[in-house]
Amino acid sequence: MRELIRACLPNGLRLVLAPDPAATTVGVSVHYGVGFRTEPPGRAGFAHLFEHLMFEGSLHVPPGAHGRVIQASGGSFNGTTGPDATNFYASVPGGALERVLFLEADRMRAPLLDEAALTKQREVVRDEIRRNVLSRPYARFPGTLLARTLYTSFACTHDGYGELGDLEAAGVADCREFFERHYHPANAVLAICGDFEPDVELIERHFGDIAGREPLPGRIEEQPRGGELRQVDQHATAPALAVGYPLPDPAADLDGYLAHVLLSALLTDGLSSRLRRSLTEAGLGEVTVRSGCGPAGGILRARHPDTFSVAAYHQGSAERVLALIEDELSVPDLSASELEGAAVRAGAAWSRAHARPVERARALSRLELLFDAPHLLGELPERLHRITAEQVTQAGRRLGDQPRALVLVTPSETRPGAGDGGRRAPLAPVPAEPETVHQRTAAASGAEPAGLPPLGGHRPARVPESASATLPNGLRVLAVRCPGLPLAAVRLCVPIASGEAADASILGAMVLRESRCPRAAELERAGWTVLPLADTRRLVLSGDGPARTLRQALEVVASALVQDDGYAADDIAAIRGLVTRQLAALAAHPATTARGAVRRLVGLAPEVSGPVDQVSAESLAGLHRSRLRPGGATLVVAGELDPQDTLALAADALAGWRGSAEPVAAAAPPYRKKAWRGLHRDGAAQVQLLFGTVAEPTPAVELASAVFGGHSSSRLATTMRDRLRLTYSARTALEPSGLVLSSFDVRREAARTAIEEFARLLEGVTTEPFTAQEIERARAYLVGRWLESVGDAAGLATALLERTPEELVRHGDALATVTHEEVRAAAARLFDPGFITGVAVGDLSMIKSYEMVR
Question: Mean pLDDT in the chain?
């Protein structure tokens, strides 16, 4: 990583600057030293609530203008509340940097704290708690439940989302006191990373006059106790268990902390990890298991005390699973090669998590605030390699001597909405994170901020350095240089027929199993993660890892592709069970159910298909022979690499893979139609609404869908969430197939109102055509998001599956030049009420007889 610039303004604001000339955007991050562990008793959730309030306007910025300005400048923004810090961040083109500095300084100086703002955001947080805690399976598992069992203090044991009673009791005076205590320069860090010239004087011009105050001590005194907690979860779909132990303090013993990071990687990172192997050998291969250090989302995200945890979602005996976990914690017979693989994987995962400038900025401000160590962003992968086998073994032994928390979750016999299909077991339930992350909306109207700096220019997109060729075996290869971190991304795409998606999902999961590919474990030891993704058009093997081990990764993948047999019956049965439950969970989710119904109504194959119970070794071998062939396939490689050398490397590594795939008949194009379907689920609290239409995905259509609902200042979002407060999130998305979907969920009592309001929005596209201001805001947003999406190796490789490098740049140019009239004409056709397909999933007792569009 390039040299960091660290500075401190006279008022105490710390700065970490990391210019990167190769970046396409700039990330800005402000961390404040206040999190949910800072809250006193009786104020549970106050840090989370206050994070919301900081988006409600400030001295020179009217309510809603903060987000509107960032999106109209081509950026995105958000905020999070963690255990010990609150983070506000934005990603923008380089020319918008000063605007973000102005906005952040203004709310650090004087946010708008009044009764209207408090009432609005209290309701938003209340809705979050209802959705993400009270109505979600495994909502407090494992993080909050483990903390309540392992620790004793209020700081460590209460729920960071908050308690409804405490939030109701909070007043404006409490908010102002909280701001004065915690939100000031001496308790904050500003980090900037990406496409900018470092200028401390510019930063001081915006932040220098804000008064600093004495920061409060951040250390929490805690004596872990351990214990056991059993909980019945009325929304859970399968039993789950978790164990937790106190971690070493990374500020005092970083190597000890990192030894536990490697212990976690050895236990559960990858198919060849120790605990996954043990579960498979014990006949428990269908158990989903994960481990980690600290809050969900990554390491070094909280001060001491923090927790090492292992969580498992299982179907059988909790005692057997727990015994296997505890046996593996001691990491017996740890070899040098196994430890090296764990260090490579953990280091690569750290680098991948910080591939984009905004994520690097967030890490820099967090590491500076919590540990006074921003240099760890670049140094941590090397630090991991210096950890010895003895240190990891000692970490495992240490856990055995620490207090242990055990949490056992069992599903309730009856669940709300059980009439919608009964119990469902997901492949990997995703618990709510202790660090709360929010999708912000920005009001579409209102005055502009006073004194807003002008929008500067940013560098035009350039065609990246690339090389392409069709290899002798028929494989089309595209290699693209993406300077920055020493990473590479690989996307291997093979076409499939629409009816093969479910079988292809098993094929993708099986093709790199060790039972048929003896070299598969090499991928993980080389730091590579390769995941399959099958939809109705294609099967993509998506890999990311260190650029220096690209050859090894391609050679391992080639060894799996060359042979079309070796699909073991017992492995197939295990994967088939996992995929079956995953498909069932997806199909039962209201949003997925609605999506599948819309796709069928417009002539597209549903993405969740099945059943897969008839998949056998013979059928997989047949699908492999007919589809996994280089002729007709495409390989994209992007990263810190030489394109011509990469072509030669790919030709050599994949030379043994031969043959042409059977032709795939072109799928019939989707069609527009007016239709309305209701799928009733008795007793469901929420109704999922999805409205679809079809159009050729041109730049004019892309802009039209963005103005209507494609960003948080759009008509759909501001009407449904900000003005009417019917939903937490409403959005329109354009897909490569040409399907345009507008989706949101509402309380069942509000479903009829929401449908009527959506119908009015459709009519308004014609009666109140999009204004120039609406179009220009959406244009800037799309161009900025396009710049960010191609700014790292993974995003660039994925984008290049759809377009050549030249087409990619031309697409950005087309978004910037399509006319207002072209956008309005596209919108009038796209959102014609006579061609809208609508689906509602939930308790429809109040809307059964209603026609969506009169």
Answer: 88
